[in-house]
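INTERNAL AUDIT FORM
Audit reference: QA-55
Scope: verify that the stored structure record matches its stored sequence.
Auditor: D.O.
Record contents follow.
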Amino acid sequence: MNKSQNLLRFLFLFFLILLIFTPYESLKAAPKEDHAFADSLFEAKMYTQSYEIYENIFLSNKKTSRAMLLKMAFIKEGLEEYSDALYFLNLYYKKTYNKRVLKKMENLAEAHQLIGYEYDDAEFFLNLYHHFYNQIIIALMVITLFIFSLILYYKQQSKKTPVLSSVIFTLFLIALIYVNNFGREYPKAIIERDHAYLMHGPSAGADVLDIVGKGHRVEVLKSNDIWSKISWGSHIAYIRKNSLKMLDY
């Protein structure tokens, strides 16, 4: 196989991967008339009615605009449903990294004595990673494929397998497998139930660590069908999974 054939094979695989893995907009796009009607209700200060339409779009479409998330947060704050307001503000921040929204969340959390809203550089890079998750996957795949093509090319030319390239290929392949299988979920959630029990173990018979209200933001370490393992201050706690609203939208 000559150089031009190698190049054509690589380009074919490259564009095939891009075609398969490039994220597409949802085919179930939100009807523009629904959005426009909800916006008109919001402008008329008919907030409850507009929220019902926004919520239907949010739950069924899974593609929401930044403005819509901000309006939903505004409505929920006006209704004094601060847990939901913080949920939508979190989603808005993940899309925009707006420092004013970040400050708004911190102020709301402080006013209602909620924990988990301290943001640092690690939090910023976590949000950045999840924001560009699909692009990271594609980049890893392209680089891995490119290195593999180089290995094949040099092996054909010299009849030897290049050691350094093989090591680099293995490392990128491991990174790709890990990110694709374990790096997708966003490990943050908001407690959405009042009087939620935090247990020392994943059992209703375990000792109670604390009883907390809704709105706290926690890091989820692991989950099964019933229980989620979370970080609570300096403790590890277990909470029923249906008491959490994940921030991985």
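Auditor finding: record pair retrieved intact. Residues 9 and 174 are 23 Å apart (CA to CA).
Action required: none
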